[in-house]
TrEMBL record:
This is Protein ecsB. InterPro entries: EcsB_ABC. The keyword Transmembrane applies. The chain crosses the membrane at residues 20-43, 55-73, 105-129, 174-202, 287-303, 309-328, 349-371, 377-397. Keywords: Membrane, Transmembrane, Transmembrane helix.
Length: 406
């Protein structure tokens, strides 16, 4: 079982490296640089604005909320697959060591993520929540111990027990960790640290008894791992095609009245097809909505006009770039090759649709830029620049990009 686990971990890491090459492509890395730079600048300005204020009543509740949410970022990775409930069933006694290996691996990943996020949160704890340096250190230890405890409880939940009840899940995953972290935020943090260590010792003793007596729940464990991998594949599918993810088209009848009607003219035919492919395909419409929403959230937290304009321009480009494959959506349909098609009319219909989508996003991006309070001329200039960029991408850049794709 140890060899099986090592092979599956290596296969999993190889899969991650394969897809991360597509996630961190040149365009996304550039966008991340702008995003992290803008976040760092805004975060720094935000903390400076709070440094002289002693009465920040919302800082401690906010810190507590973030810490509790941080704990639930990770999930135990078992690498189990559907056939295992048949082929590995004779090895059920050895599955305990397999789950221990998975727990140790998942704990290492979870603790690493928690520490990275905690480093980002530390300035807020010091300058806004007004915690002392010693309390921040003890609170970090508390967070790590609670994360380890949660991973152990996830491993225990893979065995058939009477504890897999919603009320108990809420109690041990949210309520008790929340109360311990609240003690760390509002009281001397070493108190919370001591309680967290006692909770971990209690969980460890229960884990040893449970692993020795309980039966492994193959179906539940495989379903949990399948759900975890599905979330991971959906994330990768935002950047490249993933064989394990195939979005199902949805009718979305309520949007029909907003879509162009059928026309016998070549341009009208493709306008009809492209708009319906965009709306009914989860691949393109979901990607468009996610990127637009992400940019809106970022822009609302950036007070600098030029940085906001630059980030909005980058996202307009990313949206146009990610929607280019929509042009070849119907190329595998045989009628596209037997019916006489005017390729110029096809491109014209696509470019008009692409410009409409980018124009809508530009309007949304203009709202937070205008709310930040620049002069009317500067705000309108941002809108004009974003619309001009949308037109260039839809009419000129898309033509070059589509020629390379073809």
């Amino acid at each position: 079982m140890n060899e099986i686990w090592k092979k599956r971990r290596a296969s999993y890491q190889k899969m991650l490296l394969k897809y991360l090459r597509y996630v961190f492509n040149d365009h996304f890395v550039i966008a991340l640089l702008f995003l992290f730079g803008a976040f760092g600048l805004s975060y720094s300005n935000f903390l400076k604005s709070l440094s002289g204020n002693e009465n920040i009543w919302w800082a401690q509740p906010t810190a507590l909320f973030i810490l509790v949410i941080m704990m639930h970022v990770n999930q135990i990775a078992t690498f189990l697959k559907e056939p295992d409930k048949v082929f590995l069933l004779p090895q059920e006694k050895e599955i305990r060591q397999y789950i221990k290996n998975s727990g140790q691996y998942s704990t290492f990943i979870a603790v690493t993520v928690q520490l990275a996020l905690y480093v980002v949160l530390t300035p807020f704890l010091l300058f806004a929540a007004k915690l002392t340096g010693l309390n921040v250190i003890f609170l970090a230890i508390t967070q790590v111990v609670l994360t380890i405890d949660r991973t152990k409880r996830q491993a225990m939940g893979l065995f058939i027990t009477q504890n897999r009840v919603f009320s108990k899940e809420v109690t041990f995953s949210w309520l008790i960790p929340g109360l311990i972290l609240a003690a760390g935020v509002y009281l001397p943090a070493y108190v919370a640290c001591a309680v967290a260590i006692l909770l971990l010792l209690f969980t460890t003793s229960r884990e040893q008894k449970l692993l020795a007596t309980k039966i492994f729940d193959w179906r539940y464990a495989i379903d949990q791992e399948a759900a975890r991998m599905a979330r991971l594949y959906r994330f990768f599918n935002m950047f490249t095609d993933v064989g394990s993810v195939s979005p199902k088209p949805k009718r979305r009848r309520y949007l029909d009245r907003l879509l162009p009607k059928y026309s016998a003219k070549p341009e009208g035919i493709f306008k009809y097809l492209f708009w319906r492919a965009f709306v009914r395909s989860g691949e393109f419409s979901n990607l468009y909505l996610r990127l637009t929403l992400l940019c809106l959230i970022v822009l609302f937290f950036i007070p600098n006009y030029w940085v906001s304009l630059l980030i909005a321009a980058v996202f307009v480009y990313l949206l146009g770039f990610q929607l280019m494959p929509l042009f070849v959506t119907y190329d595998e349909v045989v009628f596209m090759h037997t019916y006489p098609i005017n390729i110029q009319k096809k491109f014209l219909a696509f470019s008009k649709m692409l410009f409409s989508l980018l124009f809508i996003s530009s309007i949304f991006f203009f709202i937070p830029i205008a709310i930040q309070g620049p002069e009317i001329i500067k705000a309108l200039s941002a809108l004009v620049l974003l619309v001009a960029e949308s037109a260039l991408i839809a009419r000129i850049y898309s033509k070059t990009r589509i020629n390379k794709m073809s």
